[in-house]
# Entry
Amino acid sequence: MFHIYCPYCEELREEEEFHPKGQAHIARPEEPDACNDEEWGDYLFFRDNPRGIHHEMWLHAVGCRKFFNITRNTVSYEILETYKMGEQPTITAEHLAREEKTAREEKTDSAQVAEGGQQTVGASDAAVASIKGAQA
Amino acid sequence: MSNSVHVYDARADHATVTAESPLAYSYQRSGMPAPGEASGEKSRAVIGERAFLGHLILRGGAIVLDEALREVLGIGLPGRPNSLTVDADGQRSVQWLSPDEWLLIVPGDETFGLETRLRAHLGEAHVAIVDVSAGQTLIELSGEAAHEVLMKSTVYDVDPHAFTVGTGVTTLFAKTNVILRRPDESRWELIVRRSFADYVYRWLLDAGEEYGIGVARESRHESQ
# Structure
């Protein structure tokens, strides 16, 4: 039992009301006829399975019945943000990796900086390193 | 009126078959304890069906629908998510269901006239109006323990301080879903699918047993 923020209902709702609907931001090829079998097969059937940050579509099935996007950490299951269809995520794997890198550098500069302050939520250094560049 | 849409009166007065509410059979099979009957004391929760109301689903842009509704019915469309607007005498209401969908409930005999006038006013605007009166029914829940019955049944926060008057949500109720709303301080309304009405009715009787739940009869036989 946990709550998910629906960007259309503008409030936190019980998880039971939602359904996951797979990877988000998959663009349909502009000219399907011009695709070769491999490109079309990739578009239809192949999905990313990253360790770390993943952008997914979810459906508020019992509620407003709208699709929206969730950025989720597949390691900790933490939901980092939810945003409407057609919008772009503000939190991405690259973004978090960059942030962690800066945090690490600051730490080496000064031993006084507290650990974990503005780092990736729930992801270890190793986890973030492994997803770095693997997921758009 | 847009001539590509065929509109007809689903509640024709000359019908020879008596209309029955979705709960007609449930009343026979599961009974309907009168308020105060079960416990011998005053029921702390009372349910009553308001059958044969007109339910219209409006879909389209908020601005164009709001304008038409103000013109035709004199009440505005609720723009905020999960909100409900009720007119002055409490007979007509509009509820936000999703960013482009609203539920309009009016007395049954006004449904067809209202739909016709709305269509005439909207002209060729990109909207949809669907009469779903036959597909769902409205159950009223009142009494001092009404919110306690709901707390046992739904995952939504129905504390009267959180679920204020003028709120309406679609949420889970037992193992089905309902539209739950609060038109005024004393009443809650559940809008249930016709085919789930019996389930919800029996669930309410069971959940309300400890509060001596009763079924109000007066609002039942509203003839067509």
